[in-house]
Amino acid sequence: MTDLTLQRVSVPTATDYIELLKPRVMSLVVFTGFIGLLVAPGHLHPVLAAVAVLCIAVGAGASGAINMWYDRDIDAVMARTAKRPIPSGRVEPQDALGFGVFLAVAAVVVMGLAVNWAAASILALATAFYVFVYTMWLKRRTPQNIVIGGAAGAFPPMIGWTAVTGSLDIAPLVLFLLIFLWTPPHFWALALFRNADYTRAGVPMMPVVAGERATKVQMLVYTLVLLPVAAAPWWLGFAGPTYLAGSLVLGAIFVVCALRVLRSDDHKPARQMFGFSILYLFLLFALLGGEHLLRGGV
Fold first, then answer.
1. Which of 133, 131, 123 shows the shortest CA–CA distance to 157?
2. Model pTM?
3. Residue 269: exposure state from Cβ atoms within 10 A (0-12, 13-18, ≥19)
4. Is 163 exposed, middle or buried (0-12, 13-18, 19+ CB in 10 A)?
5. Which CATH number does 10-167 carry?
């Protein structure tokens, strides 16, 4: 029996299955969902609030597991993903698929039974959008994959809000739009310094298809559009002046990052912009939630 065969029949560990859930990606998704729940008008029992956040986390993780099952062929040829549980042989593809489907269904059912079916429906839509629209349809077919598919990661604030209120409003839609517009410059920054990976795997990311220059210009455009959208919670009255000031400062830094990427011939600014983009979104939602708590929100 070869070493490869031994690797294939080895028993996966709990850590391998946790890795299938993409915990680093999930953490930001869960945080934005929690803030959506926190700033929503009304009251939700703390236990039910915890259940709602857990369902968002499990649903996001389930989407990641199914994505890893479907993308196992391209993951195997990309340096960034080659050590994931499926291409490295630690988890069998059918096990990853079953794990993901079970968690996706469980998250929706528990959300519906414990919280409300409106939030459960949006959670189901987010999961289906990520799996069927982004992973299976767009990712391998168009350079706009992350633009349209990015909507999947923008649903959590809507889910959190609806868990409390049972319905949608303009506020969670603005938060959805904010994440939707943030996703392209965030992900294209990664695609710039991982261009060789995507080229080798045949994934039509924007830098692969349109070139780096065109990608950098579009990144700058998105960061400029984000400025007024990120300030919209203040204009709409569900955020205060502290959030407004923070959003303008963070937005200006994001624009400067995009300008540095545009003017540079190496990928160091793109790496820095990718790192800052995560901090940008986290701080925006932290400001929103923190300000709400300081104003006496529960």
1. 123
2. 0.92
3. buried
4. buried
5. 1.10.357.140
* Other Cβ atoms within 10 Å of 2 Cβ, number: 7
Phi-psi bin for 26: left (phi > 0), alpha (psi -120 to 50), beta? alpha
Nearby residues of 239 by Cβ (< 8 Å), 6 or more positions away: 233, 287, 288, 291
Give tens-digit pLDDT for 82-112.
999 999 999 999 999 999 999 999 999 999 9
Burial 182-221 (b: 16+ CB within 10 A, else e): bbbbbbbbbbbbbbebbeebebbbbbbeeebeebbebbbe
For residue 71, what are the CA distances in angstroms to 45, 55, 148, 149?
A: 39, 24, 18, 15
CA separation (Å) from 275 to 122, 248, 278? 29, 19, 6
Do residues 219 and 188 lie in contact, with contact meaning Cβ atoms separated by under 8 Å? yes
DSSP 81: T
Q: Look at residues 36, 38, 292 and name the one whose alpha carbon lies nearest to residue 153.
A: 36
**Helix intervals (H) in the chain:** 3-9, 14-20, 23-39, 46-70, 72-75, 93-114, 117-128, 145-149, 156-165, 170-193, 195-201, 206-209, 212-235, 241-263, 268-294
Q: For residue 70, what pLDDT band results from cuts at 50, 70 and 90? A: very high
CA distance 281 to 109: 29
